[in-house]
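Q: Hi! First time doing this. I have a protein sequence and I read that you can turn it into a structure. Is that right? Here it is:
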Amino acid sequence: MTTYVLRRLLQAVPLLLGITVVSFAILKAIPGGPMAAYEGNPNITDEDIRRLEHALGLDQPVHIQYLSWLTAFLTGDWGYSYSSHRAVLTEIMERFPKTVYLMGTVYVVTLLVAIPIGILTAVRQYSWFDHIVTGTTFAFLSTPTFWLGLLLIIVFGLQLRLLPLGGMATLGTDFDLLDRVRHLILPVATLSLVGIGRYVRFLRASMLETLTQDYLRTARAKGLGERIVVARHALKNASIPLVTVAALDLPELFVGALVTEQIFGWPGMGRLYWDAATRSDYPVIMGFLAVAASLIILANLAADVFYAYLDPRIRYA
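A: Yes, that's right. Below is the predicted 3D structure, encoded as structure tokens:
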């Protein structure tokens, strides 16, 4: 297993380089750029724009710009934001805890709710509970997050006035745990409801297939109770597809949910990327994409390692 992990980590190096090359090329191919905001401004001359481009290194060939960025990135200098003039690494580290706070809560809530519901729908197949859950999960899966978020804001924030409309906390107040929880409810509900629907469908399908296996009939024949058969034997093998989906969702803990953070004014990584994209802030975008790509690769590696724990038949050379 150790050899496999080391080999996968070494294979990730050229993959990450390839991702940064493609990302950098795409950013350079997009019309506009950081200087587009100054074009058409009568107070800024062409000479001023050329001087800014030279100061930012934007007048150099694309491959020279990429090599300069890569060299600085590998040494810990992720560059400076074109709009805020702050270090990119500082910007990311300020938003990072806020996104983990939100997405970590979403992740835990989603799993705690989806796993028992998925098991019950499989065990009680075609019951009234199964039909209700199936219809509800399909409804949530078909609902765009931006529409669901706005609906929750209108109902619980504007009409009923039970919950705050957005942000992390009430401005101008000291730390209050209850206030923080109230600000969490709407964004967590928006993301969790969609995630719960997806996880329930995956786990239900996998559990239905596992419950008909011969080794479970053998376990029942030995006199084991149904709860032990389901929880200790069926769930472990049925969790493999769920692990795949959960591992791919894990990077969202760090990169955030772009649309939801924008709707609720949550100052996390997703909103940072949105602001950088609208301003053509190349250093921030490249730093964000490099972090996101690294986390996706590590999440896939973690899923592969966890497969071997869930199913002893899986071995990696």
